Amino acid sequence: MTVQDSIMPHDTTQKSSLLHIYWQRFRRNRFAVAGVFVILLLFAASIGAPLITPYHPGTIDAYHVLLPPSADHWFGTDELGRDVFTRMIYGARISLKVGFVAVGIAVVIGTVVGLLAGFYGGWTDSILMRLVDIMLCFPTFFLILAVIAMLEPSIWYIMIIIGVTGWMGVARLVRAEVLSLRERDFVMAARALGASDFRIIFRHILPNAMSPVLVSASLGVAGAILTESALSFLGIGVQPPDPSWGNILTAGKDYIEFAWWLSLFPGLAILVTVLSYNLVGEGIRDALDPRLNQ
Amino acid sequence: MVTYLLRRILTLVPLLIGITLITFTVIHLAPGAPVEMQLDMNPKVSAESRERLRKFYGLDKPLHVQYVAWLGKLAKLDFGQSFAPDNRPVLDKIKERIPVTLRLNIIALILEFALAIPIGVYAATHRDTLADKGITIFVFIGFAVPTFWLALLLMYLFGVKLGWLPISGLQSLGYEKLSWWGQLWDQAKHLVMPIGVATFGSLAGLSRYMRSNMLEVIRQDYITTARAKGLSERVVIYRHALRNALLPVITLLGFSLPALIGGSVIFETIFAIPGMGQLFYQGVMARDYPLVMGILVIGAFLTLVGNLVADVCYALADPRIRHGQK
Amino acid sequence: MMNRLLFCLVLAVCCPLVSCSTSEPPAQQQLKREPGTPARGDAFILGSIGEPSNLIPLLSTDSASHDVSGYVFNGLVKYDRDLNLVGDLAESWVTSPDGLVITFSLRRGVKWHDGAEFTARDVLYTYRVTVDPATPTAYAEDFKQVKSVEAPDAYTVRVTYKQAFAPALASWGVAILPSHLLEGKDIMKSPLSRKPVGTGPYVLKEWVAGQKLVLEAFDDYFESAPFISRLIYRIIPDSSTMYMEMKAGGIDMMGLSPVQFARQTDTQRFKSRFNKFRYPAFSYTYLGYNLRNPLFADKRVRQALTSAISKDEIIQGVLLGMGQVAKGPYKPGTWAWNPTVKDYGYNPERAAQLLAEAGWTKKNSEGILVRDGRPFRFTILTNQGNEQRLKAAQIIQQRLKAVGIDVRIRVIEWASFITNFIDKRNFEAVLLGWTLGQDPDIFDVWHSSKTGAKELNFIGYRNKEVDRLIEEGRSTFDQEARKRCYWRIQEILAEDQPYTFLYVPDALPAVSARFRGIDPGPIGLMHNFIKWYVPKAEQVY
Description:
Chain A is mainly alpha-helical. Chain A has 13 helices and no strands. Chain A is elongated, with a radius of gyration of 22 Å. Helix content of chain B is 76%, strand content 0%. The interface between A and C is medium-sized, with 26 and 28 residues.
């Protein structure tokens, strides 16, 4: 039973039992649960950073550069003698921040565009969808590169531009949902009751169109983390001395043979985190999919 | 069918205009007039020659006038001169690099589809088995691993430690002296790692899409009917289900290209491959505006063409469109 | 010399090769292999991060272009192994007693790559095109001191200067261009930018855009035909890739980073395949202050900043100890370098005291010094792509924080850096480097007349005594007199601290062991490249 079938989508008892069903389905997907676990761990670590490590991520010790992992430095020290474990934990904050803000921007823009296009149809739809098509023609990374290099690699510009180049998928998904929801009885009922367009869009349609957006958001965070690491490799990601996994990985790339710890740990961290977000996203998609009635 | 084609080609025009508009806007976001860059380390150039150059590039006119002027030149395929000290026409520089990038990315694209589709089908038909789970993790790792990290690790393993593959570039130094077959083999050796890295990263999206399409198609009534009719599972899956599941995947062909081209910046830089991605990065860092604008427009245009081709293939494949229904 | 100063500001990335020196021979490992017999053949492969832009040396400023064109062209004079000026295309020269006229006797029988004869006409043409206002070159400054250039006959050139100019002789080390191919034509449109024709030991044979440049030995080279038949530049934009190529045998020489030199290449295997060399480079890194900014106007503040920084720490952390402290704009060991200059060493207490004297007595809640309600905060700009400078900046940031100064670091890519920040004087402090030329004349960087827009004294240093000493130093040929001027200048700079001079790094090249004939000297490695060879049995290409 899905939300779309009911006439009164605000029926809370149905909704909570629905959520329960989704959760049950999700829980059966062990990968997805593992992913959630990793993400929660990451959050905890980044919030509790000062409690976990006594070092400060910026403390330079020029006389002890590039030390291998030891009891004092679990992940070794980097090219300026800073503790790598500490920088990884604080870097998690930045990676997560970039991911969430960028995706937030993408979701907001994409949802608004999708809602408007789907609801109003006609010229609005045509123009907005043309815009989506045009944006999709550009190699996204090229656009991001051009803007960041031409402005400056501040963390805000990075977040904004990743968001501004990533909303198209969300827009399409939301539009598709809105198109199918638009004809539903509950919308007609609301209209008959005299509700304004705005109210219909935001109170009735939006909550029900959000499920594919969740999936997109999860995958989007993963993508944003990868994009930041690519930008760091090119020298225009998060700038030192602020730590990010991308720039730690880049700093270590010249010493792969010798200072393997500078490459292994951030690389693994990015890998595991992005993997987790992907698995969670897929898990949500599978759980929410009304067609998978098994 | 023909009307469909015509209609599709007509929609190209507003899209092209939109592409140029966005390109123009993005480049002019940056502060600092473009012409300053040309005269960077030259203290001898006086203020008047600077003014002269400004007028020459039309930079003293308002933005919309500049845009229209640029558009006009584009229509004549004049992309302007590069701002780099070599001053060559932008189109020449891009033309040099397109074959390499296209070759690399098309091979990667073919490989991607050739691998992802069977993977997706297999995962769908063996749903929830260990194989399915294993495949899932494998393709997701491909997506999740940072490209340059993987590239460096592979380079180190296969190039330095094992010495099986060349580390960078497109050809070995004695290339000219090799036989036809030797040359092909040499090129192949150089492309293994770059294409491998590019493909590995892109398998995830496509194979998952294929998998979910197959799953949906398999559940349809006509598949149940086919099974009820007693057809073998093989025929059911490969003749009936696959064809239908494949159709929407074709449309993805068009959009896979910009994703690959975008990613090419990283691995072209690492593998020292002189393609469009590397040129774009260098152009952006050097504030070579005409070059950057040229590549953005051409890149987007290539995608447009790719989509058109994909749509035509789709139209050919889907009988509903072929025979004139909407 | 000035020209090299100029274009070396452009060096954005650690370049693979710096051919510079000290007065002692470079430290190196014993060349392990037996010399064997000289033989023709083989190829020498180099990696280049950037691609050359223009192979006419007059028109380009990037190091990639100059590396390649250095093998294709000659100047009238050049520096030999021990840093003496010797004749290149000029066989000998005579300077008039008042120093205003230099008469060069040119070598005869020198051929251009296309077979034409080299004559005085080429020298005249080179001079004229350099000072021509229509030629966009960065290297005209030295030739502008010339009053006239004449060619009494085909093999004699007489140069007259407006006044005595010490760097004059060295300035004729610039590449001489072929007049028979360029005269009367627009040099900006010349095909020679991609297919140069010179008198040098190598001829550009092939340039595959984006991939490689192949140079072949010029058998009619006037000195002697090079042994190594081919010189190949491979364009490899990423430094980690280049390092791996070297280890896999794909390139034959590369400048190693300190970490690579000290920690990654100590294996038996590496040492048997490569020879490593180490010698002080001809460059220094500095932190420059914008003297127009009220923060840095008081020299006590600058002295305090220098006292708060530990140069030794920077050398340890950034260079792993492979470098020397810099106290002025001269390379330790050269004749112009003053070893007696007292330096503001690392002394945080004195720093705090000096700051207090300058009015910085109070600290705010974050521990930052404040004066009249404004905190002591500034941004250090440095260029992108230079890992060493970025590391140095971070070390400085931490040290200054300890005395209550808040420093931000901003990395800007080169094109924007010059135009938007340096030229517009839109900066507070910059962390950059200068390449040092052989001649100690420092007019372009330190004279107060060079503070205009786009000129090199961009920090705005104005000191009448230094001005006078610079002018004196460049207008006499007496080395002792010049030395007195330059030594005094270093004392004044040490007191004024317009820059915090940081370090002179060591150059750390590694070369494939199969190359014999390498003779490291004060000028570096490449001076006798045409004499290098690979014994027949070991030739690879």
